[in-house]
Amino acid sequence: MNPAARRIQRIYLALTLGNTLATSFIWGINTLFLLDAGLTNLEAFAANAFFMAGMVIFEVPTGVVADSWGRRASFLLGTLTLAGSTLLYYLLWQVSASFWWWAAVSVLLGLGFTFFSGAVEAWLVDALDFSGYHGALESVLGRGQMVSGIAMLAGSVAGGVIAQATDLGVPFLVRAAVLAAMFLAAFRLMHDVGFTPERSPRPLQATRAVLAASVDNGLRNPPVRYIMLAAPFTVGAGFYVFYALQPYLLALFGDPRAYSVAGLAAAIVAGADILGGWLAPRLRGLARKRTTVVLASSITSALLLVALVATPAFWLALVLLALWAVVAAAGTPVRKAYLNGMVASRQRATVLSFDSLMGSAGGVVAQPLLGRTADLYGYPASLAVAGMLQLMAAPFIFLSRRRRAPADTASGDAARGPASGV
Predict the structure, then answer these.
(1) Does 22 score more than 80 pLDDT?
(2) How many CB atoms lie within 10 A of CB 202?
(3) CA distance 16 to 408
């Protein structure tokens, strides 16, 4: 890696570290926070569904913002929106607001996250290409996932400890403060490199052009389409499991106010992200095709979720949770590299946002349904259903594999897709 590429990687890792640290302060206690505000399981997971609905609604428009106005502008807008909506969440908790207020602010939280999705990854890939980096993309994405895991480990544990020492609202205030600091850091460090935003004097016409080209690169491109169609099942199940594990593990532990245990659940997932990020390029080296790794990761992690239904012991549940998280995390950088290898630079952020939209759409449907399953039959049954839902992604991954896209076997420069055009 040459000095220019190394600098790009450092900035990417710094932004990933700070952003994940900020957002993860509430990840270990978010479901408990909603339940403490007086919401039922159905309402709490419905609020999460509205969050994901916000992501569905705004994913493509904010992806177009990143491709038309710049990835830096999108990141800065994301920090401001997410900080403001986090403070609104804290206010709703203070006044014990009704469900529909939670639903509305959850949509705003979703908007904040959509400014990040696609933009940061697109910024990284284009900047690395411009700097002359010739290595495998999995290596850099894997390091990013490891750094994200470290930040999530620190933030989720700290959030749980802070909540236990103070109350469930303080981690939300800490999150807003760190996001404000990230705005300043990104304003200074992050500049669009290897990509020139097309700020047309006719913005609506330019937006339509970017969107049309993105559809051609995405949904009309069979191997990309099939890998996107798998996302609703994997992301929908994964989001539910992550948040459902908080009350599930507290129930197994036997102390409903042991908030640090809820933080521990998120910390184990974070540690698994670190290990998974380290494993990803190594697993890729063992498999001729990227889809082999993605398929194996999806199926194995789904079966581990199903196994949780017959797990009455707290520590055994933690072991299965850790295995589930490691297996899922190891496949993520490989999937990202595979998708980036089939996408053109000019529409990269929008297509990646399409992919995120598909996953969020799955969460919109899955979270309230699985939350209702937990109300009726308990958390273990709902986790098993989530595992079966995730298994439904495998046929779509296999269909993408059958299209024999060059990105499935490519490495290095060839893995990052065409520089421009369709």
Answers:
(1) yes
(2) 9
(3) 26
Contact 25, 175 (CB under 8 A): yes
Q: Check the CA dihedral 87-88-90-95 and report its sign.
A: positive
Is residue 120 within 8 Å of residue 352, measured between CB atoms? no
Residue 420 pLDDT: 39
Query: Model's pTM, two decimal places?
Result: 0.71
> Once rounded to an integer, what is the mean pLDDT over residues 132-145?
86
Two structure tokens written together for 331: 């496949």
21 contacts 155 by C-beta, under 8 angstroms:
yes
**Among 161, 147, 149, 145, residue whose Cα is nearest residue 28:** 161
Which segment of 41-55, 242-256, 377-391 scores lowest on mean pLDDT?
Answer: 242-256
Burial of 98-109, coded b for 16+ CB within 10 Å and e otherwise, reads ebeebbbbbbbb
Instruction: Spell out the residues 6+ positions from residue 309 whose beta carbon is closer than 8 angstroms to its own.
Output: 380, 381, 383, 384
**In the numeric block, which tokens belong to residue 34?**
């909603």
